[in-house]
Amino acid sequence: MEKRAKERIALCRRIAKKAEAILGRKGAREKKGLNPLGHHSIAADLEIEKMAAKELGREASVLVSEEGGEILLSGKNGEVVVCDPLDGSRNFRHGVPPYCIALSFSKSRKYSGIYFSYVRDLSCGNEFWADNEGAYMNGKRTATSKITELHGARIEIDQAKYMQGYARFVPLLMTIKDTRRLGANALALCHLACTGIDAFIDLRGTLSIVHVAGLHIAEKAGAIITDERGAPILQKLGLKSSGRLAFVASANRRLHSAVLVQLGKG
């Protein structure tokens, strides 16, 4: 493992440990207004973001986060850290798992500059990361599943019921083995990276760029990630607070092709 990756793991673990402590504080679930995305922030979101910015210190120049948008840090290296302080905050507010913290470190404002990503499930302690060599769960190398047929696939779909186009998933749902909906998308993408699910779909176009750590970990584990027409998207992604994600991510190319065919029927 590269020295830089080891340093990032140590830093992320320190941040995650402090995040867990914040979740245990009185009032952590209280609502605190709306964030830049128009979603309700809770006290824990804001406290974890503030703590992460302090811990990162000179490690980067900018922190892109869900609650504060873009926060200038004291580093002069031009690096960007993308952070979701508490993915699955609605789960946490209602006292149910899962929920996580997600961080990505990039040498630039582009997805292609990401060299390390980290996600920790704050509800049970599982941790995932990706570096230039691959993806890992709890320190062991991981890879996506070998399921290639839809009838054996477990797929997670995030789609608001009130949005037009919800019916597009019906042909797909009729062919697969099972569905999932965790409510913590960065973590769900990590489950794709370790065979917990076989595909993840979010075509809303509203998912914040702060979930990019999950995409990076899934990609490094072998996932195929495109738009709903099969066009590559990752290398076009910019790491800005205004960035939004829409994608189809599958464990392998054969399964991915099958998923896209069924989506095209919807």
Record the SSE blueprint.
Blueprint: H1 3-23, E1 31-34, E2 40-42, H2 43-56, E3 62-65, E4 69-72, E5 80-87, H3 89-93, E6 100-106, E7 114-121, E8 127-130, E9 135-137, E10 140-142, E11 154-157, H4 170-173, E12 178-180, H5 185-193, E13 199-208, H6 212-220, E14 224-226, E15 244-250, H7 253-265
Helix pairs in contact: 1-2, 5-6
Essential attributes:
266 residues; alpha+beta; Fructose-1,6-Bisphosphatase, Chain A, domain 1; D-Maltodextrin-Binding Protein, domain 2; 2 domains; 8-stranded mixed β-sheet; 5-stranded mixed β-sheet; 15 strands; 28% helix; globular
How would you characterize the overall build of this protein?
The protein has 266 residues and is α+β, with helices and mostly antiparallel strands. It has two domains: 3-142, Fructose-1,6-Bisphosphatase, Chain A, domain 1 (2-Layer Sandwich), CATH 3.30.540.10; 150-265, D-Maltodextrin-Binding Protein, domain 2. Helices cover 28% and strands 28% of the residues. The strands form three sheets. It has an eight-stranded mixed beta sheet with strand order 4-3-5-6-7-8-9-10, with helices on both faces. The chain has a five-stranded mixed beta sheet with strand order 12-11-13-15-14, with helices on both faces. The protein is globular and about 50 Å long. The N and C termini lie far apart (44 Å). The model has no long low-confidence stretch (mean pLDDT 94).
